[in-house]
Amino acid sequence: MKLAMIGLGKMGANMTRRLAADGHEIVAYDVSAQAVDALAGELNGVTPAHDAASVVAGLTSPRVIWLMVPHQFVDATIDELLSAGLGAGDLVVDGGNSNYKLSQERAARLDGDGIHFVDCGTSGGVWGLENGYSMMVGGTDEAIALLQPALESLAPTPQTGWGHVGPAGAGHYVKMVHNGIEYGLMQAYAEGFELMQAREDLALDMHQVAAIWQHGSVVRSWLLDLIAEALGEPGRMEALSDYVEDSGEGRWTVHDGIENAVPTPVLALALHMRFRSRQDPSYAGKLLNAMRAGFGGHSIRPAGSGDDAA
User: Fold this and answer.
1) Which candidate, 46, 113, 118, places its Cα nearest to that of 86?
2) 197 pLDDT more than 60
3) For the chain, N or C: smaller number of CB within 10 Å?
């Protein structure tokens, strides 16, 4: 199929590469003209676009336009596309980490013009190009049918790793809870390793412990693999800051638990520990950064910089 990708950062660029490798034609657009031209020069089947009008003109109806932009810029991007001629029957996909309530509002707004909207919670980080992406998709059956060939190419296999989870808003809601759980899992690993690291009398080899747990243990996981990788690199932990950001989904998950009177103590405490990490340096915070950098390519602060200075 032919579709557009707007936003060529770590995720958007790799998703474009995976789609192009599977034979799809892509109209690629980013606020950075350099990023657009570099990707178009790298890949066959990618047409560069340098404004919203070029994106709309480069597609035929029904147009499918996938957004991989920060959630703060989704509405502005949609406005640009509408001004450029997006019309009835076309489809806008928000594949970023938007608040599900805003996704519901956007779907209702676009539906008034006969335009489809799909919210696609996307997980896979920088490894998605090679391994495929996990995608939680919300929208109408008609909209999902338009998008399905791209979803099948982006997923680990055409049948696995993606699903139509409900109406508009459902995709970003499931991704929100996914990220809330992720916070809890990461915090549990970080605390456990910090506890072992504190037992100087036992002289535990943290890398050895992680390597043992990678095979056959009930706590084995990709996150544990990332811990083992970080602990196995000389000087890696010393170079890391323990300042850990949160990108919003953890907060939204805790808020939703409060609004629905559903107890989420582990998720809430994991979020609060990220706030704590921004105060005094901690070993747990360094491990959280190692995992975030490993699976998502997130930027991290080096040790001794800014707020984490001793």
Assistant:
1) 113
2) yes
3) C
Catalytic residue among 25, 42, 130, 182: 182
Which bin fits 86, alpha (ψ -120 to 50), beta or left (φ > 0)? beta
Distance of CA 267 to the CA centre of its chain: 18
Indicate if 182 belongs to the active site. yes
Calpha distance 129→15 (Å, rounded)? 6
Dihedral sign computed on CA atoms, order 67, 17, 126, 35: negative
Strands (E), the chain: 2-6, 25-29, 46-49, 64-67, 91-94, 116-123, 134-138, 162-166
Token readout for 279 is: 């105060």
- With a CB cutoff of 8 Å and minimum separation 6, the contacts of 13 are 35, 39
CB atoms under 10 Å from CB of 285, counted, come to 24
Model confidence at 287: pLDDT above 50? yes
Mention every residue, 6+ apart, whose C-beta is less than 8 A from residue 229: 290, 294
Q: What is the pLDDT of residue 309?
A: 36
Residue among 42, 130, 175, 249 flagged as catalytic:
175
Average pLDDT over residues 136-145: 98
**Reading across the β-sheet that carries 46-49, which strands appear in turn?**
46-49, 25-29, 2-6, 64-67, 91-94, 116-123, 134-138, 162-166
Residue 294: its pLDDT value, please? 87
Count Cβ atoms below 10 Å from residue 194 Cβ, excluding itself. Answer: 16
- By three-state DSSP, how is residue 4 classified? strand
Q: Are residues 130 and 156 in contact, defined by beta-carbon separation less than 8 angstroms?
A: no
CA distance 247 to 201: 38
For the chain, percent of residues with pLDDT exceeding 90: 85
* Nearest of 288, 141, 285, 294 to residue 229 by alpha carbon: 294
